[in-house]
Amino acid sequence: MADAAVRPATPGDAAEIARIQVETWRTGFADLLPALVLAGLDVDAAAEQWRAAVAQGPATVLVATEGNWVVGFCSAGPSPESESAAANDVPVPDASTVALVGSLLVEPRWGRRGHAGRLLATMAQRLRAGGATRGIAWVPVRNTASLEFYRRAGWAPDGVVRTLDADGQPLRELRLTGSLDLALH
């Protein structure tokens, strides 16, 4: 394997982040999301959103590289209180120090090479340095690969489930939570 690394994203990475996001959703989430939703994904619009996110925050965006290629990305930052609240919408005692991993994607052709683990571990280190004490992520119930990835990282469902509307089709997600004290093995 060529040199693999994780670095902060730059606005110049936005187009590649958007391409990876759209390509990964279209190939990896074809059985989770309706075809109409996937067909409607717009790489250019996503690139503009990522450019703004990288430049303005509040989330941190990291990219995984292998050699000269950007192969994946992770965005995370302070969790909105509504995302970390208990199932009855009551704020949790540590709400101010919970971080939300909003996206963690590696392009499928670069999978199983440790990029996702490097992204999560590096992001966890940055989040801890910023005062976060634990992380959360929302994962579709039927996304067994992502559920297993987070399980191997020590994260687990915390009992909160939500159902999103994906163009008239319900998309159930589990909220996972775990330590930000992660290390690469």
Topology:
Blueprint: E1 4-8, H1 14-28, H2 35-39, H3 43-56, E2 60-66, E3 69-78, H4 81-84, E4 98-106, H5 115-129, E5 134-140, H6 144-152, E6 156-166, E7 169-179
Parallel strand pairs: 4-5
Antiparallel strand pairs: 1-2, 2-3, 3-4, 5-7, 6-7
* Largest sheet descriptor: 7 strands, mixed
- Give the quaternary arrangement of the chains: single chain
- The figure for the number of domains is 1
Distance between the amino and carboxyl termini = 17 Å
What is the CATH architecture annotation? 3-Layer(aba) Sandwich
Structural class of the secondary structure composition?
alpha+beta
Question: What is the number of E strands?
Answer: 7
CATH superfamily: Gcn5-related N-acetyltransferase (GNAT)
User: Mind telling me the C-alpha Rg?
Assistant: 16 Å
Fold and architecture overview:
- This protein has 185 residues and is of the alpha+beta class.
- It has a single domain (4-179), classed as Gcn5-related N-acetyltransferase (GNAT) (Aminopeptidase, 3-Layer(aba) Sandwich), CATH 3.40.630.30.
- It has six helices and seven strands; from the N terminus they run E-H-H-H-E-E-H-E-H-E-H-E-E.
- It has helices spanning 14-28, 35-39, 43-56, 81-84, 115-129, 144-152; strands at residues 4-8, 60-66, 69-78, 98-106, 134-140, 156-166, 169-179.
- The chain has a seven-stranded mixed β-sheet with strand order 1-2-3-4-5-7-6, with helices on both faces.
- A hairpin with a 2-residue loop joins strand 2 (60-66) and strand 3.
- Helix 1 (14-28) crosses helix 3 (43-56).
- The longest helix is centred in the first third of the chain and has 15 residues, at 14-28.
- The model has no long low-confidence stretch (mean pLDDT 93).
